[in-house]
Design brief:
Jelly Rolls, 2 domains, four-stranded mixed β-sheet, single chain, 33% strand, mainly beta, six-stranded mixed β-sheet
């Protein structure tokens, strides 16, 4: 069952239908007053993601990144470096080969410091248009979702 919710909280730039996976972008939100307003604002904030385009051979992810759209695979291989978990806390990233050439030009994803990705220092996207979602345990380990 699809449910639509209308919020008079700000300006809606994109409609969010959770069952379909689309994202919403809501701007001009006022700070919550208290009680349920804060809960509603938290819900809305967690539905917004920041898409970052990677058009170079290296990129270090930041705490504000959510969706990493790798376009550079049309040109060459890419190395992405995750931030240390201690600097971002619990976080999730989705990395997508939007260039569509990861089979030839791989996307290497490396951890930082002593953090690991499923027990190793790095993983690779090596199939065209594939994606990978990583989340962490808040201390020292990244996992594949």
């Amino acid at each position: 069952m699809n449910r639509s919710k209308y919020y008079q909280a700000g300006t809606v730039e994109f409609l969010h239908i959770k069952e379909c996976g689309y994202a919403s972008r809501i701007t001009d939100l006022e700070a919550p007053i208290e009680g349920s307003d804060a809960v509603n604002k938290d819900y809305v904030d967690n539905q917004i993601f920041d898409r970052v385009e990677v058009n170079s051979s290296t990129y270090t992810l930041t705490s504000s990144d959510d969706l990493i759209a790798v376009l550079y695979t049309l040109t060459g291989g890419v190395t992405l470096t995750l931030p240390e978990i201690s600097s971002v806390g619990q976080k999730q990233y989705t990395i997508v080969d939007e260039g569509g050439n990861a089979f030839v030009n791989n996307i290497d994803i490396n951890s930082s410091g002593s953090d690991l990705i499923i027990g190793v220092g790095g993983v690779t996207i090596s199939q065209n248009y594939n994606s990978l979602t990583l989340y962490n345990n808040g201390t020292d380990q990244w996992f594949i979702r």
